[in-house]
Write a structure and sequence with these properties.
Elements (H helix, E strand, L loop, with lengths): L3 H26 L4 H23 L1 H4 L1 E2 L2 E2 H19 L1 H15 L6 H13 L2 H13 L3 H21 L7 H13 L1 H8 L6 H21 L12 H17 L1
Antiparallel strand pairs: 1-2
């Protein structure tokens, strides 16, 4: 029986690395002119778009029975987006950011940094695979690698948005740590997470959502990214349904 620390060690290391990145970003922030801060945000936005495109590839490679993966992804995003708007997920996440901003005396783009970092750090294949692996075997290697990446990104985001980025560790602990604790139950339902078609499709849908976040960082448009989060939960259900209907 694994201890609580063994199951969630990767998440706590991830949290520490994000906080260190935030602290480093705060030290750099006051020393850079606004144009340089904008360039840093644009660099993060471009890399985020690249990561999103890479993550979305399974939608063109994995099918759900006779149904193409991209169709499953489209239905998941549309349905999930409608549910997200109905549940007002975007507004609630912003409200949480505003509440933290008021409680801890934040200023400027506190809420924007909190929302952007929370979404970026919680969506992605490394979050899912790392959490399941950590919870099942106690091996937090994937989450440590992810945490190192998150820490570096948090330096850049903090330089532009401020200390709100650091508060993204709250949803990281809840979502990532919770998934690690539930790893046994989740893994028994999906098989090997590294090769499971349903998880690959979730990764693809997550990639599209990450792509939307990148567009927001570049200020190309305003995608209500948080509203699409239910699509991540709907994708495995739609995959199973399509498999049943195709049999």
């Amino acid at each position: 029986m694994l201890s609580l620390w063994a199951k969630t060690s990767g998440t706590w290391i991830n949290v520490v690395l994000v906080l260190l990145g935030t602290a480093s970003g705060l030290m750099v922030r006051g020393r850079l002119p606004r144009t340089m801060q904008e360039v840093i945000t644009q660099a993060v936005g471009l890399i985020t778009i690249f990561i999103g495109v890479q993550m979305a590839q399974p939608l063109t490679e994995v099918n759900a029975g006779a149904i193409a993966g991209v169709i499953v992804g489209l239905v998941a995003l549309v349905t999930g987006g409608l549910l997200g708007e109905w549940w007002q997920i975007e507004q609630r996440l912003i409200a949480i950011g505003d509440g933290l901003k008021a409680r801890f005396g934040g200023s400027g783009q506190f809420t924007e940094g909190f929302v952007a970092a929370s979404l970026l750090f919680c969506i992605g294949p490394m979050t899912i695979l790392g959490s399941l692996n950590n919870g099942l075997s106690g091996d937090g290697t994937i989450l440590v690698i992810k945490g190192t990446m998150d820490g570096l990104v948090s330096i850049a985001l903090t330089g532009s948005y401020g200390i709100g980025v650091g508060f993204s560790v709250l949803p990281v602990v809840i979502y990532q740590g919770g998934m690690s604790l539930l790893a046994g139950l989740l893994a028994s339902g999906i098989g090997d997470p590294a090769s499971s078609p349903s998880i690959l499709l979730v990764t693809g849908v997550g990639g599209v959502i990450i792509l939307g976040l990148g567009l927001n960082l570049l200020k190309v448009t305003t995608v209500r990214v948080a509203s699409f989060l239910p699509a991540l939960l709907l994708t495995p259900l739609l995959y199973t349904l399509c498999k049943v209907l195709s049999s």
